[in-house]
Every structure is written in C-alpha cells, then in structure tokens.
Amino acid sequence: MTQPATQPRPEGAANRWQDWLNLVLAAWLFITSFFLVLDQPAHWNAWIVSVAVGVLAVWSAGVRGRWQEWINLILGAWLFISPWVYGFANGSAAAWDHWIIGALVFIVSIWSLNALRSATMAHGYR
User: Which of 16, 20, 75, 87 lies deepest, with the highest CB count within 10 Å?
Assistant: First the structure.
C-alpha cells in the first residue's frame, strides 16, 4: 500500500511538537532581526527565511508531508551559512543568532523527518 503525498495528520501526531518548535524559532528570528545589526540584504534574508520556515511549520503541523520538512531543512542550512554569504560571520550577535537558529531548524527538521519515517513504517506504508 502506498501513502499519499499528503494526508491530514491524526491527533497527537509524533512530530507535531517539532513543527511548533520550528514556528517558535521562525518567530524568534523574525523579531531579533529588527534588533540585530545587519545590512539591508541580510535583513531581507532573515525576514524571508523566518516567514518561510514559519509558514511551512504551520502547514506541516496540519498536513502530513515530507516536502515541508525537507524545505525547512534546506532553509535551516541556508540560514546557518548566510552569515558567511552576507559577510557578517565575525562572531557578532547577528551571526550567532543565525548560526544557532539555522542549526536548530536543521536539527528539528531532521528529527521531524525521522518521526515521519518511523510513523510511516509503523503503519505499513512505504
């Protein structure tokens, strides 16, 4: 039996807390970007990535699907390397904020993908 690409998540789904944690991380990044010293392109990057991670986290909390988690994983990796890309990887608060939030979004997305895989295997889907 094959699993549909997306399906409503049952109540108490295994990785629901990971989705909400990614939403909190996205909100943190969005809010802190107003207070950190960043140039204009880096500000826009923080805002766009935080909104994308937040929207995908809410979407993923309501619908079971792997693609949302994969995109958040990529966004977490991008957020981690963005201080080097935008030239503020000097140990500043902004750089540490991006490194920590990026690493956490990446790790939470891996955890969520693993939980989805485990739930899929438990239900006999491939």
Answer: 75
Phi, psi of 7 (to 5 degrees): -155, 150
DSSP string spanning 6-66? -EEPPTT-TTHHHHHHHHHHHHHHHHHTTTS---HHHHHHHHHHHHHHHHHHHHHHHEE-H
CA–CA dist 80, 73 (Å, integer): 11
Upper half-sphere CA count for residue 17 (Cβ side, 13 Å): 4
Mean pLDDT of 7-30: 74
Phi, psi of 6 (to 5 degrees): -140, 150
